[in-house]
Design a protein that fits this description.
about 0% strand, 26 helices, mainly alpha, Memb_transporter_dom, disordered C terminus, Integral_membrane_YCCS_YHJK
Length: about 725
């Protein structure tokens, strides 16, 4: 296959590019006939409906997608009709806008599909408000905006019928890409000085967020394909097997066999360290190639070099041992680290067979985790509570809309609904996310306006502006999940052109839109600062409790595997996943708290908790990666660790004072033992015990009600 063909296949299988291509095709098929028939304003109105439809699309199977499309069109038509009917009566329209905003945001509690539908309905309503002044008749906007969304939805549905598993391939490939980035970053431990290891651990925690998020999204997509199927298709079975494989590889990738700070001092062999690093790099690059093969529907070809490098690494370790005679406490973990890499190598060989599209010998029958359905009224009662993050966000956004609409009505800004559009995109559930969007939105809008002025003076004709409009929306959808500021710049130019062409004006008005953007950003910032601000510091006790409880359940599940035999059933995979999700929440809290106005004490405390919890999870993953029936494991120490973690979690949740327990004993190493697993397991349990003791002491930091502003956090010893 030629390089050009490979490039074209890669481009068309890229998820962002393909999505943008669908939107471009839908909008081009609407704009070109409209321009040809000299009905450009109507065609632009159709494209705004298509954009709302694209932004409210969710991944489902063809039947579910069609059902979601029909429900979306009904909601769009009803919402636009109400806007058209009531917008000229501010005393009625204002309260209805605030109440409907709250309801549409709260729809997110019923799943991503309902949340996306609520967002799309709100967005298309704002489009209708902005275009109301140019609407020639009552039914003009309800019909055209809804038809535009219907046209895009139908086109996307037909594409889904042709490629029903395209989204699964794309998301599964992202799992392997994320795993590749994790392994490549982890390889840096072997050649970095000790002072950089803390930073590397932090980077790994951030990469683990991406990896676990990709795994969780893939699981949701697979569940939608599996649910309700009596017979599993071969392609779906292969994709499910590849998903289970990346889960297993994730556990091995996140494992830590030895303290990296100590490793460089104890091993004292640059060649051996370089061997481990080279092997991790090769495995990381192999994961990327596997992800690329899944994405492009090609066969994966595993490198034969990895097998040779595994053998060479073992020979080098044995040779170094003969020269220096390493202690068993060092040699045993190094051997298990090599075996762990060998298991990753074997997993990639299994993936190679799975991508060849040969008939599976047997159907892949495995249960994926599904959330337990919660009855309507209990869910609604929990939702309508100040502690609900979604409720707080809904109230905050509704009040922000009330302020924005009051400003529009009092100043009689006929086209001032851009303020509400800005608020919708900038105001996020948390302060840190809003602050990030605030900067990105402002910079992107300024960039779009600055770039738009010379472009439109150079290309004043309607045809040229339509070409620029299409180019902008294509770039927006390719960049919105990658570089948000760039995407905002292009979508700003798109919407400026769209609203002006919608009204038959060929020269956009830039300064009013800039004023509206800055006003919307200011209102959103004030709202997240003063209206139920969602400071991460308040969530730290709950997040730490979740992490300690999840680690306890994961450790219990590992212990059961040692007692009953290794398997990868749901009762093991679910605690493992929950432990990683809880660890991710702590890492995200550390990211967010850094931009919040908090004393240094809380910054240090949050960092120490996230840092130690990720290290604890790494050692637990090592136990899980090497779990095997009949291997010796100290049951009494396991029970003590589980009990301490659960007791800490209960106290944190109930806000009770944590009792002053003595530190758990780490246990003594048997230096004379010849059992490599016994040596490694005792080392791991020793590390785990030290980290549990540290986390317990950090949990007691929440008992300090008035910490000094610059008090130092606990040390990292």
């Amino acid at each position: 296959m030629s390089p050009a063909t490979l490039w074209i296949r890669r481009v068309f299988t890229d998820s962002h590019f393909f999505f943008a291509l669908k939107v471009l095709l839908a909008m081009t098929s609407l704009l070109l006939p409209g321009w040809w028939l000299e009905q450009t304003p109507a065609a632009v109105t159709l494209t705004l409906g298509a954009m709302a439809g694209a932004l409210s699309e969710v991944d489902q199977d063809p039947k579910g997608r069609l059902r979601h499309l029909l429900l979306s069109l009904i909601c769009f038509f009803g919402a636009i009709t109400l806007v058209t009917l009531l917008i000229d009566t501010p005393l009625v329209f204002g309260p209805l806008l605030v109440l409907s905003t709250l309801v549409l945001i709260l729809m997110g509690a019923w799943g991503p599909g309902a949340g996306t539908l609520g967002f799309g309905t709100l967005l298309v309503s704002l489009y209708a408000m902005q275009g109301h002044a140019d609407s020639p008749s009552f039914w003009y906007q309800p019909l055209l905006l809804t038809l535009g969304a219907a046209w895009y939805g139908l086109l996307s549905w037909l594409v889904l019928l042709i490629w029903p598993y395209k989204q699964v391939h794309e998301q599964l490939a992202q799992c392997y890409f994320a795993l590749s980035r994790y392994l490549l970053e982890k390889s840096r431990f072997f050649d970095s000085p000790e002072e950089q290891h803390q930073h590397l651990r932090h980077q790994l925690a951030q990469l683990n967020i991406q990896l676990v998020s990709a795994l969780e999204t893939t699981k949701l997509i697979l569940n939608r394909r599996i649910q309700g199927r009596e017979k599993q298709e071969q392609e779906l079975g292969r994709l499910l097997a590849l998903y289970l494989l990346v889960q297993e590889m994730h556990e091995r990738a996140t494992s830590s066999h030895y303290s990296y700070q100590q490793l460089n001092r104890d091993l004292k062999q640059v060649d051996v360290l370089a061997g481990y690093q080279t092997l991790l790099v090769e495995l990381g690059e192999a994961c990327y190639r596997l992800g690329y093969a899944i994405l492009t529907h090609n066969d994966y070809q595993h490198s034969k070099r990895i097998s040779w490098e595994l053998s060479a690494l073992q020979d080098q370790l044995d040779y170094s041992h003969l020269k220096q005679h390493y202690p068993r406490s060092l040699l045993s973990p190094m051997k298990f680290l090599g075996r762990n890499m060998a298991h990753l190598h074997q997993a990639l060989l299994r993936a190679e067979a799975l991508t060849r599209r040969q008939p599976l010998s047997e159907a892949v029958s495995v249960e994926l985790a599904r959330p337990e359905p919660v009855p309507f009224w209990p869910k609604l009662k929990a939702l309508l509570h100040p502690n609900s993050l979604l409720f707080r966000h809904g109230v905050r956004l509704s009040l922000c809309f009330a302020l924005g609409y009051s400003l529009i009505a009092s100043l009689e800004l006929e086209r001032g609904y851009w303020i509400l559009l800005t608020i919708l995109f900038v105001c996020q559930p948390s302060f840190s996310a809003t602050r990030k969007r605030l900067v990105q939105r402002t910079l992107g809008t300024l960039g779009g306006i600055v770039a738009g002025i010379p472009l439109l003076y150079l290309f004043p004709s309607v045809g040229a502006q339509l070409v620029i409009l299409l180019l902008c929306i294509f770039i927006f959808f390719t960049q919105v999940k990658v570089y948000y500021s760039w995407a905002v710049g292009f979508v700003t130019l798109f919407v400026l052109l769209a609203f002006n062409l919608q009204g038959g004006v060929t020269e956009p008005v830039f300064l009013p839109r800039l004023f509206d953007t800055l006003t919307g950003c200011a209102l959103a910032f004030v709202a997240v600062w003063f209206i139920w601000p969602d400071w991460q510091r308040r969530h730290l006790p709950r997040l730490m409790a979740d992490a300690m409880e999840a680690n306890a359940h994961y450790l219990s599940a590992i212990a059961r595997q040692f007692a009953q035999g290794r398997d990868d059933e749901l009762d093991y995979r679910l605690p493992r996943k929950q432990a990683h999700l809880a660890d991710n929440q702590l890492a995200l809290a550390w990211q967010n708290i850094r931009v919040e106005p908090v004393p240094r004490y809380w910054l240090n405390l949050c960092f120490d908790i996230a840092y130690r919890n990720h290290a604890l999870l790494s050692y637990l993953s090592t136990l899980g990666a090497h779990r095997r029936h009949s291997a010796p494991l100290q049951d009494e120490q396991i029970q003590q660790l589980v009990s301490r973690l659960l007791a800490s979690a209960r106290a944190l949740r109930s806000a009770d004072t944590l009792p002053v327990y003595p530190p758990l004993p780490t246990g003594a190493l048997d230096a004379d033992s010849d059992d490599e697993w016994l040596i490694l397991s005792r080392q791991l349990l020793g590390h785990i015990t030290l980290l549990v003791n540290d986390l317990y002491q950090l949990a007691r930091g929440f008992q300090q009600q008035t910490p000094e502003k610059d008090a130092p956090g606990p040390g990292l010893g």
